[in-house]
């Protein structure tokens, strides 16, 4: 990537990127050309065969034929607390993301009655595995309404951020201690009024969780999980009158006709997009519903992720398979380096081999930490598409040792162990098919959440480097399609129609990428949250430049100091 000053006559642009391979976000075929930026907008795009841009700019970048895409728009994150202290919005900033949407899965921090903040922190900590100590120390609080929360976070960032109104916080605000019970007619009217006001103040939409895996610290499903159709439809009526806003749903009840009834009601009554989280093996009922509603010109978009839900297990992480062995109690407080040394000590290993494992009260945890043929050493190529030889059982077979010995060898090496949730069968073909389905929208990065078990904020890099370029276990995906799915398509679901395309008039949110050398780095545990909280993070190589609102924010993976991002308010795009 070469930089040039004023070389071509009168300077009329702020920035020109020349000689780029442009994938413009629309799904159209790549082409070579130049892009000019003025005042934070794309001023011109000229194909190479047309001679390129003749004007000059205050700054010019010779792309050298490298890939130029729109900035990525990540519509499923949980940075609701993190944006209070981390204006770089890490690690999404390392992966070409220039817009994030947060407030997903019905959880967030506004509205909130003063003095009840603890309840929202504990729910976020339990549901999204974000250290509560970090949230207590890092969030300045002081707001009550959703609009006041938006005002509080309306500060400069390295990228744009937008927020949804979360159902859990809304219910807690209106109903107080009754928030686990059925809402009254008066409660529903109050929630609808607050939703209407939140949308007016700039909420991008509303999110709700009806997923039985989302539990609070006491083991209860979060408020709103069993809300009646009347309640959800009442809130939906507020979206209908707002003129903007998207509803995001996670539900275990899609097989229930009553659940589909209110989803259809909201899609028809509001005309607004509805997006529902799905796994690769989610019932075809979802896809049939999406197809039927799309045929009516409505917008119901199943939301799929880059790979199956997964957990990374490490000695420092939330899930550590060594904890099932009583012998581990003697070393668990040691520094991680000393623990790894102990795992190789013959005397300690003998004690582990003789142990009767503890049984967790959570069935899923037991499955993750002891299903040896489904516990995979994280592949060195970070493919997230392992085979049997990568499993603890496979390692044990290859070495002719007990699976517990193989487990200790792997954990002593520092390599994370990967568990893929949802019936992984050795290939990600079903995942690929779902992503490529034109009905689906791409999401589920969970950026900012599940700090001790995953780092899926890195999925834009994963999609380009692995699914578009390196995959050998099945077909690769079209680069043009994947870029479209992560830019124009995701932006449109939340009404952000001013971005996601490399064309004149659009926001100058761009990525210049060395596609051939683009690569993920290994995930690592860092202790950089407030109060010393820990999280898994992950960086990348190959992003030559990321540009937000016309300003270069990252060059070769390093922050330039520019902070052109802002809060995006719904209805303003």
The name of the CATH superfamily of the largest domain reads Metal-dependent hydrolases
Name the structural class.
Answer: alpha/beta
Shape: globular
Number of domains: 3
- Main sheet: strands, sense, barrel: 10 strands, mixed
Task: Assess the beta-strand content as a share of residues.
Answer: 15-25%
Number of E-type strands: 26
CATH C-level class of the largest domain is Alpha Beta
Mean pLDDT: 96
- Which radius of gyration do the C-alpha atoms yield? 24 Å
- Count every helix, treating DSSP H or I runs of 4 or more residues as helices: 17
CATH topology grouping of the largest domain: TIM Barrel
> Percentage of helical residues?
25-40%
Low-pLDDT residue spans = none
Distance between the termini: 32 Å
CATH architecture tag of the largest domain: Alpha-Beta Barrel
Describe the structure.
The protein has 573 residues and is α/β, with parallel strands linked by helices. It has 3 domains: 2-65, Urease, subunit C, domain 1; 72-309 and 427-492 and 503-559, Alpha-Beta Barrel (TIM Barrel); 311-420, no CATH class. Strands 1, 2, 3, 4, 5, 6, 19, 24, 25 and 26 form a 10-stranded mixed β-sheet that branches. The two termini are 32 Å apart.
List the helices and strands and how they pair.
Elements: E1 2-4, E2 11-22, E3 31-38, E4 41-47, E5 56-62, E6 67-70, E7 72-74, E8 97-102, H1 117-128, H2 132-138, H3 146-153, E9 160-163, E10 165-166, H4 167-175, H5 185-201, E11 205-210, H6 229-242, E12 246-251, H7 257-270, E13 274-277, H8 284-295, E14 300-304, E15 310-313, H9 336-343, H10 346-354, H11 363-370, E16 375-377, H12 392-399, H13 403-413, E17 417-420, H14 429-436, E18 441-442, H15 459-470, H16 479-485, H17 488-493, E19 510-513, E20 519-520, E21 524-526, E22 535-537, E23 540-541, E24 543-548, E25 551-555, E26 558-559
Parallel strand pairs: 2-5, 2-6, 7-8, 8-9, 10-11, 11-12, 12-13, 13-14, 14-18
Antiparallel strand pairs: 1-5, 2-3, 3-4, 6-19, 15-17, 16-17, 19-24, 20-23, 21-22, 24-25, 25-26
Helix pairs in contact: 4-5, 5-6, 6-7, 9-13, 12-13
């Amino acid at each position: 990537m070469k930089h040039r000053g004023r070389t071509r006559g009168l300077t009329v642009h702020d920035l020109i990127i020349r000689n780029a391979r442009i994938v413009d976000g629309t799904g159209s075929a790549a082409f070579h050309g130049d892009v000019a930026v003025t005042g934070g907008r794309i001023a011109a795009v000229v194909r190479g065969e047309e001679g390129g841009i003749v004007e000059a700019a205050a700054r010019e970048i010779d792309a050298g034929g490298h890939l130029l895409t729109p900035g990525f728009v990540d519509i499923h994150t949980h940075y609701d607390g993190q944006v209070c202290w981390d204006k770089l919005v890490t690690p999404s900033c390392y992966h070409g993301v220039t817009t994030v949407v947060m407030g997903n899965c019905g959880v967030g921090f506004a509205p909130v009655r003063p003095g009840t903040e603890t309840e929202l922190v504990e729910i976020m900590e339990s549901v999204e595995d974000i250290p509560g100590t970090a949230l207590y120390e890092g969030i300045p609080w002081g707001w009550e309404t959703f609009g006041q929360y938006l005002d509080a976070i309306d500060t400069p960032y390295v990228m744009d951020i937008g927020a949804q109104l979360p159902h859990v916080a809304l219910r807690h605000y209106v109903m107080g201690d009754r928030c686990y019970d059925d809402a009254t007619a008066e409660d529903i009217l109050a929630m609808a009024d607050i939703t209407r006001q939140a949308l007016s103040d700039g909420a991008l939409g509303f999110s709700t969780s009806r997923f039985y895996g989302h539990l609070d610290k006491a083991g209860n499903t979060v408020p709103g999980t069993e809300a009646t159709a009347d309640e959800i439809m009442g809130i939906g009526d507020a979206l209908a009158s707002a003129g903007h806003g998207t509803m995001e749903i996670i539900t275990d009840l899609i097989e229930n006709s009553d659940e589909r009834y209110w989803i259809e009601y909201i899609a028809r009554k509001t005309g607004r997009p509805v997006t529902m989280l799905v796994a690769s093996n989610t019932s075809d009922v979802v896809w049939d519903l999406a197809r039927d509603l799309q045929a009516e010109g409505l917008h119901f978009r199943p939301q799929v992720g880059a790979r199956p839900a997964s957990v990374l297990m490490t000695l420092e992480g939330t899930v550590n398979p060594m904890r099932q062995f009583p012998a581990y109690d003697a070393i668990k407080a040691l520094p991680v380096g000393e623990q790894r040394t102990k795992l190789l000590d013959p005397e300690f290993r003998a004690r582990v081999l003789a142990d009767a494992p503890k049984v967790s009260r959570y069935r899923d945890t037991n499955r993750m930490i002891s299903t040896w043929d489904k516990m995979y050493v994280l592949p060195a190529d970070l493919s997230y598409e392992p085979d049997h030889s990568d499993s603890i059982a496979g390692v044990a077979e290859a070495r002719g040792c007990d699976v517990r010995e193989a487990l200790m060898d792997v954990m002593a090496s520092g390599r994370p162990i990967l568990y893929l949730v949802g019936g992984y069968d050795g290939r990600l073909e079903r995942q690929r098919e779902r992503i490529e389905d034109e009905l689906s929208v791409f999401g589920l990065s969970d950026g900012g959440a599940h700090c001790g078990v995953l780092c899926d904020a890195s999925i834009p890099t994963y999609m380009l480097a692995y699914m578009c370029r390196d995959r050998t276990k099945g077909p690769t995906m079209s680069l043009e399609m994947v870029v479209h799915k992560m830019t124009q398509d995701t932006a449109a679901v939340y009404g952000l129609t001013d971005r996601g395309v490399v064309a004149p008039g659009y926001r100058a949110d761009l990525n210049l990428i060395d596609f051939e050398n683009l690569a993920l780095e290994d995930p690592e545990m860092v202790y950089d949250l407030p109060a010393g909280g820990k999280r898994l993070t992950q960086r990348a190589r190959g992003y030559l430049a990321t540009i937000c609102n016309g300003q270069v924010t990252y060059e070769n993976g390093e922050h330039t100091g520019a902070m052109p991002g802002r809060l995006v308010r719904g209805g303003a795009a």
